[in-house]
Automatic annotation (TrEMBL):
Domain Cyanovirin-N: 43-146
Keywords associated with the record: Signal
Lineage: Eukaryota, Fungi, Dikarya, Ascomycota, Pezizomycotina
InterPro entries named in the record: Cyanovirin-N, Cyanovirin-N_sf
Name of the molecule in the record: Cyanovirin-N domain-containing protein
Gene3D superfamilies tied to this protein: Cyanovirin-N
Signal peptide, first to last residue: 1-17
């Protein structure tokens, strides 16, 4: 069963509550969207062992993982546009389909599996936002997916 939901969310963090209005495309058998990780995807780092490259050109942000096991005894390199997986909500990077975070964030870098970027906070300022890519990206047959 697929549901299209437009929700007013209040995401609680240890420091503050962040109001967020986001469009959630479709939810399958979930009562609420998962903002900081996914129950059905994740763990790409354990099967993509050849390093990574992140390239931000304007609002486009491409992440390439090298030497991803393809399930057939071989390895493939895989690239994914992170705008298809991540949104900027008040300076916080969160998982959501087609989030287009690159349109409001710049200077994307990755250290380990953590993506960090300088993001607009919706109040005229910029803050450092981050998200663990290993919690939202998975390797499916040598291809990165979110």
């Amino acid at each position: 069963m697929k549901l299209s939901v437009f929700a007013n969310l209040f995401v609680a963090s240890a420091a503050t509550a962040i109001p967020a209005e986001i469009l959630v495309g479709s939810l399958e058998a979930r009562s609420s969207p998962i903002l900081h990780g996914r129950a059905d995807c994740g763990g790409y780092a354990s099967t993509c062992t050849g390093g990574y490259l992140i390239v931000q050109s304007g609002s486009e942000v491409d992440f390439t993982a090298y030497k991803c096991g393809n399930g057939k005894g071989g390895y493939d390199d895989s690239t994914i546009n992170l705008n298809t997986c991540i949104a900027n909500v008040g300076g916080n990077l969160v998982f959501t389909k087609n989030g287009d975070y690159g349109s409001s964030c710049s200077g994307s870098t990755v250290s380990g599996t953590t993506l960090t970027a300088n993001c607009g906070n919706g109040k005229g300022g910029y803050v450092s936002g981050s998200i663990d890519l290993n919690s939202i990206l998975c390797n499916q047959g040598g291809n990165l997916r979110c």
